[in-house]
Amino acid sequence: MLVDRPLRVSFAGLKLENPLMLASGIVGVTVDTLARAVESGAGAAVSKSIGLEPREGYRNPTVVATDSGLLNAVGLSNPGARVFSEELSEVKGRRLPIIVSIFGGGPTEFGRVTEILDRNEFLAYELNLSCPHVEGVGTEIGHDPEVVASVVKAVRARTQKPIFAKLSANTHRMVDVARGAVDSGANGLTAINTMKAMTIEVETRRPTLSHKFGGLSGSGIRPIAVARIYELYENFKVPIIGCGGVSTWEHAVELILAGAISIEVGTALYEGYGVFNKINRGIEQYMKRKKYRKVQEMVGLGHRF
Ligand SMILES: Cc1cc2nc3c(=O)[nH]c(=O)nc-3n(C[C@H](O)[C@H](O)[C@H](O)COP(=O)(O)O)c2cc1C
User: How far is the CA of 158 from the centre of ligand 1 (A)?
Assistant: First the structure.
C-alpha cells in the first residue's frame, strides 16, 4: 500500500513537504517572494546570498539568455545581514521553511553574518562558497579545501542550525572541498552553482555582460550537475541537495537517482511559479508507477549499474 504524502522528505534535521526548493538568488530578497515559492509548491525556499554589508551588484547587462541556458553576473547584490535580519524577524511564528544563503570574504565575515542572522527563525544555512564571478568571495574561497574548512568551522561555532555547503563545479578539487566542509561540521552539500562562462557579441565584438564573465545556469549545466552529484554520493554519506538545470520531473528524478535527496529549481522559475507543482506531480506519478513509497528509496539508485 502506498503511504500518504510520499513526497515528504527528512534529512539533516529538516522535514519538508516535498523535495523541491527555490534555488538561491532567483527571485528577490524579500520574505514575501520566498513565501510565494512555498505557497506555489516548493518544500523550502533558499534566500538570495546575504553578506555582511549591503552590495549593489554590477551594472547592466547582468543577465543574458544563451541557447544553453542563462548567463548571469549579478554581483551578489543584497541588502546586507542587518537589514535582512529585520526582514527575517517578520517570519516569526509563520513556520516558513526558509534556508538562508550567506557569503563572505573569509571565515571572520562568514562568522559575523551568522551571528547577526542566527537568532531568527529559519531552517538552515546554505554557504555560498561557489559564486563564479565575484572576486574575493566566490571561487577564491570555494576552490580551496582549507579555506572552506575554516569557513564552515566559523559558522559551526556560531549556530546549532544545519549547514549546507554549496559547491562549485568549476574546480577539479570539488570532492576535496566537500571533504573540508563535511569534516568541519557541514551537515550536507549543495551541488552545483553556476558554471563560469562568457558570451561575446559578434557585431560589437564586446563581451555581452558588463562584468564580462558570468555563471551559466539552466539546461546546459544539468549533465554537469548529474556527474557532480553522482561523484559526491560515492564519496560522502551526508545528504546532497541537487541543483542545476531542472525544469521537469524527469530532470528532478535524474538528480535524485544520481544521489540527491532534495532538488533546487532556479532558472526554470522564470517560466512561472507553477513549475514546482508541475514537477511534484510528475515525481509522484513516477513513484506510483515504480511503486516507491518514499523519495528516499530512489536516492542514488543510478549507482547500482
Ligand atoms: C540570476 C541568478 C542569480 C543567482 N544568485 C545566486 C546567489 O545569490 N547565491 C547562490 O548561491 N546562487 C545563486 N545563483 C545560482 C543558483 O542558485 C543555482 O545554483 C544555479 O542557477 C543552477 O541552478 P538552475 O540551473 O536551476 O538555475 C543565481 C543564479 C541566477 C540565474
Answer: 26
Range of the domain at 274: 9-304
- The total of structural domains in the chain comes to 1
Ligand 1, pocket-test mutation among 125, 129, 151, 193, most atoms within 8 A of CB: 193
To test the pocket of ligand 1, the residue of 20, 21, 24, 68 to mutate (highest count of ligand atoms within 8 Å of its CB) is 24
Any domain includes 188: yes
Q: What is the pTM of this model?
A: 0.97
**For 32-74, what is each residue's pLDDT tens digit?**
999 999 999 999 999 999 999 998 888 899 999 999 999 999 8
In a domain, 292, yes or no: yes
Residue nearest to atom 22 of ligand 1 (CA): 244
Per-residue cell: 46: 533558499
For residue 3, is it within any domain?
Answer: no
* pLDDT for res 2: 47
Give dist(CA 102, CA 100) in Å, integer: 6
pLDDT digits (tens, 9 = 90+) for 221-251: 999 999 999 999 999 999 999 999 999 999 9
- From the CB of 74, is ligand 1 less than 6 Å away? yes
CATH number of the domain at 74, please.
3.20.20.70
The closest-lying atom of ligand 1 relative to the alpha carbon of residue 221 is 25
Question: Does the beta carbon of 243 lie inside 6 Å of ligand 1?
Answer: yes
In a domain, 4, yes or no: no
